[in-house]
Amino acid sequence: MKHTAYEKQTNNFERIKDIPTELLYGTVPKHPVFLTIILITCQRFGYFTEAVASILKQKKVDFVWDIVVMDNDADFENTQKQTWISSLHCKRIRYYKNTQNLGHEGNINRGAQLTDAVWISILHDDDLLADNYLQLISQYIKACANFKKPLAYIRPRHLYFKDRSEIVKNGFARDIEHTRWIRPLTMAECLVKGCGPTYINSCGTLIRRDVFLEAGGYDKSYDPIGDAVFGLSLMQNYTVIASGRVLGFYRRSQGASMKKETMLRLLQADYDLREYFYSLSTVGKVFGKVFRRTQFTLSVARMKKNAQLAHFEIPREEIEEIGDLEQGVFKAFFKKELLRGIRILVMLRVNPSQLI
Hints:
Spore Coat Polysaccharide Biosynthesis Protein SpsA, Chain A, 11-stranded mixed β-sheet, 12 helices
């Protein structure tokens, strides 16, 4: 059955329209802004200061940009962040505080409403941007200027880390020049990958603001894959790309995403999304019949790796309540390698790359 819910558009700004947000530091710019980095935060002061530092270390660019901090902590007696931001004396920063917690999606949506920038970039308070993020984003935007469909969304390649010192220790900064390709994403890639390739919006996802507003913003009802669904919804009319170069750093083993309940919800949501992909065409139906168990098994393997990092296990019976795993070692290996080959073919033939 076709999951039409993934295709609907909802005005998610209506859900938060009656909840005020107060500007506690900075002034609204009078000049046009090309790009606004929306830093969403709630508590976690230590991580927050690291995130801000990664933004302020950006290398010089030839466009106007600013920072909108969206604090979801409605405790106005807690002025720690406001005091710290004030001490920076940075004219780029505006610090807002919601009078009620708007939730993750609502906080991003409100941030998009509070800027007039052409582009918005999303950063969570526990993640970091590469120091040449803005320079690379500018190159991507210019390189995609002549694409048949206008560019609306860049999903950043990111590296995982646990502690900020790990970035320096492992030389992650040198990996920023890793690859230079630009690859428009397609539904064919979504089908063979078995997941939305626009997942993880927390470390530098770039979205054209007018498109974001027109699409109704992020929809909480799709949680925990709202970022993936939003990116997919744009593919028909706009160019959506994944960056080859590293644009940000995603902090692993922190927050709700590494909890057992969240992982199982994500596993179920991914399974439902794959069923949607299978339903879109005859080819999809055949592909699903052949690879449904294989893709689910690979999804489970990724989840188990994250569970090990968080020091817990997920019982097999809870996994099998969601879907059927591939049976037989040889069969599982053969179909996994066959699927790998199909992925490479699709990425090379369906999504031609170009360099920046």
